[in-house]
TrEMBL record:
It comes from Erythrobacter westpacificensis. Residues 1-22 form the signal peptide. The keyword Coiled coil applies. Keywords: Cell outer membrane, Coiled coil, Membrane, Signal, Transmembrane, Transmembrane beta strand, Transport. Its main location: membrane. Residues 330-357 form a coiled coil. It is found in: Cell outer membrane. Gene3D superfamilies: Outer membrane efflux proteins (OEP). Belongs to the outer membrane factor (OMF) (TC 1.B.17) family. This is Transporter.
Length: 410
């Protein structure tokens, strides 16, 4: 038997070894991270970051290669004989001052943009996962609600049939109870199918996510108004979409500056060696070439300047879009939570009505048709409450993801 003091020493170690439990109603964060890493769009974005880094190294190196040219001739001269002659040149273009610095800047900004776009892709994948997750939980909760009336109506039909056997109920009551039971079974079958379909979509989109066999219960949405406002502000502060657009704009601005410098073409420098008359005459020297650009280079520079202005406008537009997302997320979370509160209040009132109607039916004061109508209205109230609770949690989850408070800690 383990002694208490030994148990006290072991419990902290078990707590450290145990994996972090998931938040109520949400999948485990470690499992979500694995699922997002395996998402094809996220993998493609990571590869684009690698491509951007390779492109940056290429820009920093030089756009110019070494060029080797040469020739060999066999010359015959009367009365002198035959001679082997050759010449060779080694040349390379040289970037004019400022161009290398701008090439490095362009590469740095493009890597920054690619990294932020990769993070934003992961962000979008998290939103997709949350959407499918709450679709499944919502459909499963509705399926559970739709299953309850089946058992209730089966018991009610059995009670009516017993009363008919005793001559205390009409055949019409049995027909009404059987019709209500049939409709309830149809709804239960449909909602169960919707839940299976939602789970299939979730596991198909995110096969690496460990999805439990049974959907967890949808928790009560509890978040203070101040916390909602704080998360809304973080949506803009932590936006990778804005950061990517601004990095892209900086890269295009640097490209425009590079295009302006490219109005003057890069010269080429090299060395030349030659041998003539079979080696009787040899030499070595420097060679230089300088292309003269025309209107084409000026037009390219003007194009780059216009593209830089467009990129700056797109960066401002990205900020507007994220600000709209921030405000919309906050507004949606607020009204979804309030809608759920009203649905909960309505359900409580409807349950009180149902209790009185059942008691009245037992006393013979309420007809079966009226009771069945109240049962249906109560079922609708349960469905409305579950749907409102799921929509509220869905809105809160979206706000938390957009603010990087959930699953996307940088």
């Amino acid at each position: 038997m383990m002694r208490p003091k030994h148990l006290a020493l072991i419990l902290p170690l078990l707590a450290l070894a145990a994996p972090a439990s998931a938040e109520p109603g949400l999948p485990n964060e470690e499992q979500v991270s694995i699922a997002l890493d395996a998402y094809p769009a996220v993998e493609a974005a990571r590869q684009r970051v690698s491509a951007a880094r390779s492109s940056a190294r290429a820009r920093a190196a030089s756009p110019h290669d070494f060029t080797v040219t040469g020739s060999y001739t066999r010359r015959s001269i009367d009365l002198e004989g035959d001679f082997d002659e050759f010449d060779a040149e080694l040349m390379r273009g040289v970037r004019l001052p400022g161009k290398a610095r701008l090439d490095r800047e362009i590469g740095t900004h493009l890597v920054d943009a690619a990294q932020n776009m990769a993070e934003d892709t992961r962000h979008q994948a998290a939103l997709v996962l949350a959407q499918h997750w709450w679709d499944w939980l919502s459909a499963s909760a509705v399926a559970q609600v739709d299953q309850r009336p089946v058992a209730n109506l089966e018991a009610a039909l059995a009670a009516v049939q017993r009363r008919m056997d005793l001559g205390d109920a009409a055949a019409l009551d049995a027909d009404q109870a059987e019709a209500a039971l049939g409709a309830a079974r149809v709804r239960a079958a449909q909602s169960a199918g919707e839940a299976d379909l939602a789970r299939t979509r979730l596991t198909t989109h995110f096969p690496a996510l460990a999805v439990p066999a049974e959907a967890p219960e949808i928790p009560v949405p509890e978040m203070a108004a101040d916390e909602l406002s704080r998360l809304s502000r973080l949506v803009v502060m932590n936006s990778h979409e804005i950061a990517a657009a601004e990095a892209q704009a900086r890269a295009v601005e640097a490209s425009a500056a590079r295009a302006r410098l490219d109005r003057v073409a890069d010269p080429s420098l090299g060395v030349r060696v030659f041998s003539e008359r079979g080696g009787a005459e040899t030499g070595a020297g420097l060679v230089f070439s300088m292309p003269f650009g025309g209107s084409r280079r000026g037009a390219i520079a003007d194009q780059a300047i216009a593209e830089a202005d467009a990129a700056l406008a797109e960066a401002r537009m990205a900020r507007f879009a994220v600000q709209e997302t921030s405000a919309a997320d906050l507004a949606q979370a607020r009204f979804r939570i309030e809608s759920w509160q009203r649905a909960r209040e309505g359900l409580r009132a409807q349950m009180a009505v149902l209790t009185r109607m059942r008691r009245g039916h037992e006393l013979g004061e309420i007809d079966l048709a009226d009771l069945l109508l109240t049962e249906r209205m109560t079922h609708d109230a349960f469905t409305m409450e579950v749907d409102a609770r799921a929509q509220a949690q869905r809105a809160v989850t979206q706000l938390r993801i957009d603010s990087h408070d959930l699953w996307l800690a940088d």
